[in-house]
């Protein structure tokens, strides 16, 4: 239904930020490892983005120690946020937040235009009994609530924010309806993370289909048939089907444009030392100066932990803090995911 619901409406948010021009070419698909692949139908009416993200989801679990249910929920959110945020303008960020009333609490992910994504979940060790069909009960773990998507850029006066109700808590359906209801963008998402009972990640795959508002009836009919024939993304991962092959499955009968594709390597992060210190320095800038002084006096140092990367930035003195990279007062401080104080 979302392929047709928004037909004839302008995709406002996508029009604001879709500033990366694809350069015709023929990149060689990767044979292994994580990859984000973008391809366009021959008539230009459909774009597909397909991601193999097993390694980045494994890194997420290594950093957060997620249970099976929490790992699937956060892993799907990472993949979905990555797909929503990829191929945007330089320095643009996309943040997705599920605020559900289920036991997992808040699930949040932030993606950059160059295919880096990081995330967190309030209760990463929560697990629930499986559903009657034996599948993990991600929907109940997320629970009812809202999903918010914030697209931001340093040059924008204010970010674009869209909020919709959580439809079922399965992540993919919720983000598909967000695209339709909030951004008036025709499309569909498929997200899958396959795990063992102890939470070990076996594979992670996802795809996003974007359809122009005035796509032909023939295109929509063919695309709906292709989507109906697609195996679940977790099965795609288990079978080792690469993203470029998934794109061809989605574009079956739509004559994918030859020699016109893009390939990126998605990564978890950024979690490098310089980036952590820059982001945590911005978080410190939001604290009252008196509170910072008291921490140095009482503890002897200031340490701020990034809840996304599970890495800390530390300053041994006020002088070291002052000498660090200057903070632009006009830049929005990233306080979510930062835990100031001493460890």
Automatic annotation (TrEMBL):
GO terms for molecular function: protein folding chaperone; unfolded protein binding. This is Molecular chaperone Hsp33. InterPro entries: Heat_shock_Hsp33, Heat_shock_Hsp33_C, Heat_shock_Hsp33_N. Keywords: Chaperone, Cytoplasm, Disulfide bond, Redox-active center, Zinc. Residues 319-335 have a biased composition (Acidic residues). It comes from the Eukaryota. Residues 1-33, 319-343 are annotated as: Disordered. GO terms for cellular component: cytoplasm. GO terms for biological process: protein refolding. Pfam families: HSP33.
């Amino acid at each position: 239904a979302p392929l047709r619901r928004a037909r004839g409406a302008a995709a406002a948010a996508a029009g604001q930020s879709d500033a990366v021009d694809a350069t015709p070419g023929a990149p060689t698909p990767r044979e292994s490892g994580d990859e984000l692949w973008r391809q366009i139908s021959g008539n230009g009416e459909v774009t597909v983005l397909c991601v193999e993200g097993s390694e980045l989801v494994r890194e997420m679990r290594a950093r957060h120690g997620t249970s099976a249910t929490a790992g699937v929920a956060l892993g799907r959110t990472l993949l979905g946020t990555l797909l929503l945020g990829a191929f945007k303008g330089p320095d643009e960020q996309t943040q997705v937040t599920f605020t559900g009333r289920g036991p997992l609490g808040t699930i949040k992910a932030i993606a950059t235009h160059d295919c880096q994504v990081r995330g967190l979940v309030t209760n990463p060790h929560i697990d629930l009994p499986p559903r009657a069909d034996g599948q993990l009960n991600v929907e109940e773990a997320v629970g009812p609530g809202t999903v918010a998507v914030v697209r931001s850029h340093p040059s924008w006066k204010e970010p674009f924010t869209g909020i919709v109700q959580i439809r079922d808590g399965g992540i993919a359906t919720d983000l598909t309806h967000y695209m339709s209801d909030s951004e008036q963008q025709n499309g569909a998402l498929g997200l899958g993370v396959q795990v063992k009972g102890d939470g070990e990640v076996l594979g992670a795959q996802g795809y996003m289909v974007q359809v122009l508002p005035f796509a032909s009836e023939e295109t929509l009919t063919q695309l709906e048939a292709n989507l109906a024939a697609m195996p679940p993304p977790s099965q795609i991962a288990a079978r080792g089907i690469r993203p470029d092959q998934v794109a061809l499955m989605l574009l079956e009968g739509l004559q994918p444009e030859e020699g016109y594709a893009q390939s990126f390597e998605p990564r978890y992060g950024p979690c490098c030392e310089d980036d952590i210190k820059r982001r945590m320095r911005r978080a410190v800038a939001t604290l009252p100066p008196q509170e910072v002084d008291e921490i140095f006096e009482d503890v002897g140092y200031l340490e701020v932990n990034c809840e996304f990367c599970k890495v800390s930035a530390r300053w041994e003195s006020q002088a070291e803090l002052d000498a660090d990279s200057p903070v632009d007062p006009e830049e929005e401080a990233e306080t979510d995911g930062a835990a100031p104080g001493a460890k």
